[in-house]
Fold this protein.
Amino acid sequence: MQAALIFATKVLVSAKSVWTIRKIYQQYEVHMYGGDSGHLWSSIGGQKRGMPGNFDAGRFQTLDAGVKEGVCAIPLSRPIFTGLILFIWTLTCVGELRRTVELFRRLVCHGSTSSRFLRVTIETQDSHDIFKLKTLGLNARALITLLIVLPRLGITFALLELGSRFLLATTSFENLIVNVLALAVIKDIKDLIYSTVVSAHDKRELELTRIAIADGDRRERSSLQSMLQASVWLIAAVAFVWLYMFRFQSVLPDYQWDVKRVCSPWIQERFVERSD
């Protein structure tokens, strides 16, 4: 279901948003650089971009009102705000990746291998029977990898790419927040299905199931090394946001960073409240 929803969002929603924002930005470029073919060049996909030195800020006053409103809402015109929203979305996906990697590490990589499919012991704890997963066979590890770990990794990476592209194609700053919440719903579809479809008895048994801790994990203590290892995820999220916005984004190929200087006064005049 997640895969189908991701595909539908990419084809029916994200693609239209990308087409719209490219059209608006091209109209802006052609107008602000005089419309002369000698002042323009063609980017990827034939998108028109202005030649350096030919930008005329005064032409913004004669720009069509609809184009003016649309171009001043381009997310890349406010890189700090957009970067924060994209960082929140990236952290959401990084958290999912980290949980998946931890699941793979504890279930597949660690622990002894059993000739059985799996071995579970029952222990009593606080008057409750606890199911402790001791070992997994090779077949069980292979199934977990193929049916759980790899699909979760693939879906998370697909969501990260789709969400980042969709957010940068959103031509409304207020909708940036709405869209990041909508993307989070797609990510959490599996949890919704679990909470709605799985019976209370099965949920209870899963809550009482524990994974036997490996000896190395049992001896591990908080240290500078463990803190640095955890911070790698944060560094990776920051690096991804910066690289995606300033190097790899393809929503607006060869974006000129020439919107903010003319849109800031226009936004200040119309939308920023003044205290009397």
About this structure: Residues 1-74+252-276 form one domain.
